[in-house]
Write a structure and sequence with these properties.
The complex is a heterodimer of chains A (355) and B (164). Chain A has a domain at 195-350: 2-Layer Sandwich (50s Ribosomal Protein L5, Chain: A), CATH 3.30.1440.10. Helix content of chain A is 32%, strand content 12%. Chain A has 13 helices and eight strands. Chain B has a domain at 39-88. Chain B is built from five helices and four strands, in the order H-E-E-E-E-H-H-H-H. In chain B, strands 3-2-4 form a three-stranded mixed β-sheet, with no helix packed on it. The chains are: A alpha+beta (355), B mainly alpha (164). The interface between A and B is large, with 55 and 45 residues. Chain B: This is Ribosomal protein bL31m N-terminal domain-containing protein. Chain B: One of its GO terms (cellular component) is mitochondrial large ribosomal subunit. Chain B: Residues 36-81 form the Ribosomal protein bL31m N-terminal domain. Chain B: It holds the Pfam family bL31_N.
């Protein structure tokens, strides 16, 4: 009894799986020669399809006649509201799978679009007209025809197979330290070192144990001299003397300058501020991270020499103007090239030059 | 064709069963606010340097013209060869030098004054003019030295690069 029932159910359920569903057939557009051969008769599948083309209209002739967009727009007295003809980017980015995607930041309709540049800074003109070609000439290395550069040792050393444990080990780092320095390609017309970005950074320790006004003043001062809205950062390390604990206290302010802002800032830093710093000999020759980025610091008295702060010096509370660290990021891969570029642009260096 | 349909369906069901249940983030709203970038207002400012040259730049300072009192044109660090900026004392009568010769101690005893150095240089030039033949020989030698310098230029650099 039970066996016969199961068989009945089986018999009922089996053909259901084998019945072709119209949905899948409609979606399957691939056609094989074997398909053609097997299905000779136009079966009931095709009866599901609509007999009429989708291009034929079902609208009445009156509607078609009354549709006159050009006439309508001519008859309009006032302009359409802006929302009717201007695309507005969505306010939120809801991910790549959302149908309403914001346009890329380079699109003028994007919310992230930053227009510009609006001026050709003096520093950039100097760089393009004189400095770039000078550097290219100075860094030219002549190789006579037939010259073959000596083969260099590989940067990452392989293990000698003296031990069976050396198998499948990753390559060893360079001799004498773990740091793998940047490669210095020969300088040609398309990799002349140039100024990439400038970072202004100010660590205000009083913001942790006094009020946050220190941070606001620091942010305003740095924004004034750099024309860039600052970012704030929390401390990563704990400093017991200053009552700073990591992740709790917002203590630092940073502004990153690129392009036009960067060139204007660099110009006024070199031409107006640096000559007025008292008893200043230049940037220390040992400064730099050995990959082409050079950092120096300005005291709070030196920050007051910027024309933007000088013009309304009284706006800032006394003694709350911060000092800052300025990092000049160049596209050079060694400090030597970076120093050559910066000194060509007018930055003095003093002391022993360490590369 | 009819056979492929159930096969595909089974594949779909198995895929649905095998979806991972690990949570990558605890709370995903899948909407990030696109904040409009803040751009502080900028003015165009004309900067007049001490030697009279001017340039414009964009700045947040509203002053239209900025005159510098001290910049790269009148600072010794940028003009190391300028005698005007070197802070040299004017001692035409030689009284300061005489005082120093009489009472000068360690750091200011017999400091060579600029005028004396010039005089010495002119004297040496006159002595050279006196010996014309010697001068011609020296010039010839100098030319040779220059030619040597030109021909040997860059070879040291090459050796250096080879070492590197």
């Amino acid at each position: 009894m039970a066996a016969s029932e199961t068989s009945r159910y089986l018999a009922r359920s089996l053909p259901r799986t084998l019945v072709p569903s119209s949905r899948h057939q409609a979606l399957c557009w691939r056609r094989n020669a074997s398909d053609q051969a097997s299905s000779k008769a136009p079966s009931a599948d095709l009866s599901d399809l609509e007999s009429t083309s989708s291009l034929t209209t079902t609208a009445s002739q009156d509607v078609i006649k009354s549709f006159q967009p050009i006439e309508r727009s001519r008859a309009r007295k006032t302009q359409l509201p802006r929302s009717r003809y201007q695309f507005r980017s969505p306010k939120y980015d809801r991910g790549p799978l959302h149908p309403h995607r914001p346009p890329p930041p380079s699109d003028p309709s994007s919310r992230l679009y930053v227009p510009g540049p609006f001026s050709l800074p003096r520093v950039e003109q100097t760089y393009q007209s004189t400095v770039a070609s000078d550097i290219l000439t100075l860094l030219y290395v002549h190789n006579p025809p037939g010259f073959k550069p000596p083969v260099k040792a590989p940067r990452l050393r392989s293990w000698d197979d003296s031990s069976p444990y050396h198998k499948n080990r990753p390559l060893r780092g360079p001799r004498g330290g773990d740091v793998l320095r940047l490669l210095r390609h020969p300088i040609t017309f398309n990799n002349i070192p140039k100024l990439e970005r400038i970072t202004l950074h100010s660590y205000v320790k009083q913001a942790a144990w006094e009020h946050s006004g220190w941070l606001h003043v620091a942010g305003m001062a740095i924004q004034a001299i750099s024309n860039v809205r600052v970012e704030t950062f929390k401390s990563k390390t704990s400093v017991a003397q200053w009552h700073i604990s990591p992740g709790r206290d917002t203590v630092a302010v940073k502004a990153e300058l690129r392009g036009e802002n960067m060139h204007h800032f660099f110009g006024k830093l070199v031409d107006l501020v640096m000559p007025r710093i008292k008893d200043w000999e230049g940037i220390k020759g040992s400064s730099g991270d050995s990959s082409g980025n050079i950092t120096f610091g300005l005291e709070s008295e030196d920050m007051a020499l910027f024309p933007e702060i000088e013009v309304n010096y009284d706006m800032y509370p006394p003694k709350m103007i911060p000092g800052c660290h300025i990092t000049l990021h160049t596209s050079a891969t060694t400090d030597k090239d970076a120093r050559m570029l910066l000194s060509a642009l007018g930055v003095p260096f003093h002391g022993k030059l360490v590369n | 064709m009819s056979l492929s349909t159930p096969l595909r369906r089974t594949a779909a069901t198995t895929a649905r069963v095998q979806t991972s249940t690990t949570f990558i983030c605890s709370q995903c709203r899948h909407a990030t606010l696109l904040r409009r970038p803040k751009r502080p207002y900028q003015f165009t400012q004309l900067i007049t340097m001490t030697d009279g040259s001017t340039f414009t730049h964009r700045t947040s300072s509203p002053v239209p013209i900025y005159r510098t009192t001290r910049d790269t044109r009148n600072t010794l660090l940028w003009n190391p060869s300028s005698n005007k900026l070197k802070n040299v004392e004017e001692d035409e009568a030689g009284r300061l030098a005489a005082f120093r010769a009489k009472f000068g101690r360690s750091w200011d005893a017999n400091t060579p004054v600029e005028g004396e150095a010039d005089a010495k240089a002119s004297e040496s030039a006159e002595s050279k003019k006196a010996a014309a033949a010697a001068e011609a020989a020296a010039a010839q030698e100098e030319d040779d030295n220059l030619l040597d310098l030109i021909s040997s230029f860059g070879q040291d650099d090459q050796h250096g690069s080879k070492k590197n």
